[in-house]
Amino acid sequence: MNVPRHIAIIMDGNGRWAKNQGMPRIMGHYRGAEVAEEITRTCIDLGVEYLTLFAFSTENWNRPREEVELLFDLMRNYLKEKKEELIRLGVRLKFIGRRDRVGKDLRRMMEELERETAENYRITVVLAIDYGGRDDILRAVNKLIRLEFDHVDEETFSYFLDLGDIPDPDLLIRTAGEKRISNFLLWNLAYTELYFTDVCWPDFSSEELYRAIEDYSGRKRKFGRVLDE
Ligand code: FPP
Predict the structure, then answer these.
(1) pLDDT value for 86
(2) Which of these is catalytic: 2, 12, 14, 188?
(3) At what angle do helices 104-116 and 65-89 cross, to 10 degrees?
(4) CATH number at residue 13
(5) Single pTM value for the model
(6) pLDDT in the model for residue 35
(7) Count of structural domains, the chain
(8) Residue 152 covered by a domain
(9) Which of 8, 31, 189, 207 is most enclosed, with most CB atoms within 10 A?
(10) Nearest to residue 172, comparing CAs of 9, 54, 56, 12?
(11) Backbone angles phi, psi at 120, to 5 degrees
(12) How far is it between the farthest Cα atoms of the chain?
């Protein structure tokens, strides 16, 4: 199997999964967080270097207030509870997205986790929280304006985006049947292979991940070139 160096995932379908089980939507997110942990472990075993997870988009603020609050409680509690385990696993954590709207507690926790896991090297897990691809591009443009650049090339521009020097994703997985990018990593996904599955995120598993990687392994990546026959 040709294992991707960087996998990005849009973890969709938590709400639908919960509804099908006759449970409140937040239970889908709880189960979703457990699946994110299982997939992180599998990625470590497979030798994936970067795993980027879309946890909360700039548009998700438009959800009912109660769901937003519970989701942030979940993320805060999960990160607090799992901190030692993440360190033990050798996870380097990085957060992408806006930092100005997530609340002081979570912001502090993010900074602390990034600092305390900076030397870990088994995998880099990137959590996208209050992240939007357009917002990422605009924040980069505004930084460049502030620094009075009058010209930038692709490499420099990429560096100013939230992923910085992390290589572009090789494989994007989206669960729950939707076939959209939904404002995720717009710049970085330019040549990423896309994989869609009908399985809702809480039912996603290591087996499903192997399936996605197997499918990816059979793809010919051309990056706009012609491949020799
Ligand atoms: C999309 O499903 C999922 C989200 C908006 C939240 C994803 C967040 C997690 C899985 C928690 C991650 C936490 C950590 C600490 C990594 P949806 O609610 O849009 O599902 P639906 O389309 O069926 O309604």
Answers:
(1) 96
(2) 12
(3) 20
(4) 3.40.1180.10
(5) 0.97
(6) 98
(7) 1
(8) yes
(9) 8
(10) 9
(11) -70, 150
(12) 56
Say which residues have a Cβ less than 8 Å from residue 169's Cβ, sequence separation at least 6: 4, 6, 7, 8, 50, 52, 185, 188, 189, 192
Question: For residue 166, how far is its CA from the centre of ligand 1 (angstroms)?
Answer: 24
pLDDT band at 217 (very low <50, low <70, confident <90, very high): very high
pLDDT tens digits, 40-77? 999 999 999 999 999 999 999 999 999 999 999 999 99
Contact status, residue 113 vs residue 81, Cβ threshold 8 Å: no
Report helix angle 206-217 to 25-46, nearest 10.
Answer: 60
- Supply the range of the domain harboring residue 15: 6-217
C-alpha 220 to ligand 1 mean position (Å): 31
CB 127 within 8 A of CB 95: yes
d(CA 92, CA 119): 7
State the closest ligand 1 atom to the C-alpha of 17, by its place in the atom list counted from 1: 23
Query: Looking at the predicted structure, is the pLDDT value of residue 189 above 80?
Result: yes
Token duo for residue 104? 């002081």
Residue 188 among the catalytic residues: no
Domain contains 79 = yes
Separation CA 152–CA 187 (nearest Å)? 15
pLDDT tens track for 94-137: 999 999 999 999 999 999 999 999 999 999 999 999 999 999 99
Answer yes or no: is 129 within a domain: yes
Does residue 124 have its Cβ closer than 6 Å to ligand 1? no
Mean pLDDT of the chain: 97
